[in-house]
Amino acid sequence: MATTIDEVLERLHCTGPDLVGGNSNHAPMVAEALFALGRSEAVMPWIEAYQNRFQERPASRCPISRESWQEALGERSYGTDWVTFFDHELAETPWPVVLQQWIPRLTPGLMAAAAHGLIRTSHAVRSLTAQETAPRLHELAEGLGYWAARYQELPGRPSQQHRGYTPRQAVQHVQRVHDLDFDASGAIVQNIKGLDARPEFAEAITLVDTTGDLADFITGLTATFAAVYLANPKGLIAFVHAVTAPSALRLLTPYLYEADARLAAQYAWQACAAIYAWYATTTLPATTNVAPPTTEPGTLIDRAVAAGGAHTIKFTEVCLREYALAPQAIYLVAAYDAAERVGKI
Q: Would 47 be classed as within a structural domain?
């Protein structure tokens, strides 16, 4: 009998949101991505190989109410309580309405857990879009709860006085912090906090124009940062998130009011710009011309599954999804590269 996403989620929901060592638990996201890639047979073997990293769910600390939620925002120790809060919200309110209410509250802290709150939420939403079930609703609570508990704002706020750049143009105006001798090790979340001491970064969010076609803007963002990923020898995992995060937002925008979606896109750009500012050691050229690989999408998927890395699988799925929307060779080249340079990570 074929494994279903619901069976997988029920198994994973006893595990905590983080792994031994502190990294995010990617298992629910990877499982959903593998199902989306048509590789359901790879899900359980992948989880079996990954499970020695699991931690138990943290204990509850204090219930969160609709009146007091702001006090718990960004409080890591309230992670389990946030999931319980969203379980209650989703039991009382249709999940699209919960998204419409809560995504605007959470997008200023989109950098949460290196954007894994956003990314996990988007995987849950795609699964719910296909079919509403109890495990999928709870997975949405897990994603939103993780986002709320790890909420992290970056320096700078949106302004009506933007510079009008596309993402490709805007990245040329983001000041890099490090050069080639940069040590890119350490947690993304902690490293990015270094931008708090860089007042010049606060202007980055005002560089882009999100008033045009929003789908095209997100495409510009993912394509730009696929190129950034390819251009840099270090910080690969960080740059992977600069592609998967805006692509994740794309899955949520149909459930948002237009103004909220456009504001969320600005914060997605800000998160990507933060990753560029801290991790990029080379300046992105004004244009990037790449020859598409001769590898078929099915082979790219095979390469990702064989490599086995959580980031490799999710990145490949996103690159193929973005390519299906806007067939730019940069996505295929990045996916091919990830199986080698990101590999098992």
A: yes
Question: Rounded to an integer, what distance in angstroms lies between the CA atom of residue 271 and that of residue 241?
Answer: 9
CB distance 195 to 188 below 8 Å: no
User: What distance in Å separates the CA atoms of residue 57 and residue 44, rounded to the nearest whole number?
Assistant: 21
Residue 276: which of 318, 227, 208 has the closest Cα? Answer: 227
Q: Which residue has the tokens 């560089």?
A: 207
Residues 305 and 248 in one domain: no
Q: Is residue 159 in a domain? A: no
Domain count for the chain = 3
Reference 230, options 344, 334, 122; nearest CA is 334
| Full domain range(s) for residue 94 | 5-149
Return d(Cα 138, Cα 114) in angstroms, integer.
22
- Residues of the chain where predicted confidence (pLDDT) is lower than 50: 1
218 plus 273 within the same structural domain? yes
Which tens digits make up the pLDDT trace of 137-180? 999 999 999 999 999 999 999 987 888 999 999 999 999 999 88
Distances in whole angstroms, Cα of residue 77 to Cα of each of 69, 118, 186, 263, 267? 14, 19, 21, 28, 25
CA distances from 262 to 104, 122, 190, 268, 321 (A): 10, 17, 27, 10, 21
What DSSP string describes 154-223?
Answer: -S----S----B-HHHHGGGSPP---TT----S-HHHHHGGGGG-GGGGGGGGSB--SS-HHHHHHHHHH
What residues does 110 pair with on adjacent strands?
152
Would residue 78 count as lying in a domain? yes
Which helix (H) or strand (E) element contains residue 51? none
DSSP secondary structure code for residue 65 in this structure = -
In terms of domains, do 270 and 217 share one?
yes
